[in-house]
Amino acid sequence: MVTKLQTRTASRRKLQFLSTLYNSKSVKRRSIVLNVLLHCHKLKLKLEKIHREYQNLMAIRNQYSTLLKHVQIPKQVKVEKVGEEFVVKVSCSKGGDKLVSILEAFEEVGLNVVEAKVCCTHFFAMEATAVAQHQQTTDIKDVTQAILNAIEKQGGEHI
């Protein structure tokens, strides 16, 4: 059996641990326990506050996602010629096989795609680098018009 002395010693060690853990200056058992309870209550309130903030942020995110679904993204096609390469940046609303149509437009104009980055999370965006096949002379306006036609054909959008 455990003696009263051992029980008392273990209890004092626990109280000492709690007082050092929660920076309690008191040596009275009641004060230490009250400080610990007060600290736990404060932590609970902080946790509830964080939970409310999280719920508010999630509601804002959901509203933002809903708004993004209903917003029409204006189509933009920007073509630059850097040396022998064409740098093409396209953004428009997503839907259909826009990537396929744009790549076919590159082929019609006589460009080979060297590198392309595509994103279609909330809208369609593409950045591509292309070079002319067989040293053809291709105009920026021709490339821009071909891509615009491909987007129009695919999405049914109007300029």
TrEMBL record:
Subcellular location: Nucleus
Domain Plant bHLH transcription factor ACT-like, first and last residues per copy: 76-152
InterPro entries reported in the protein's UniProt record: bHLH-TF_ACT-like_plant, TF_AMS/ICE1/BHLH6-like
Entry keyword set: DNA-binding, Nucleus
Pfam name, any one: bHLH-TF_ACT-like_plant
Protein name: Plant bHLH transcription factor ACT-like domain-containing protein
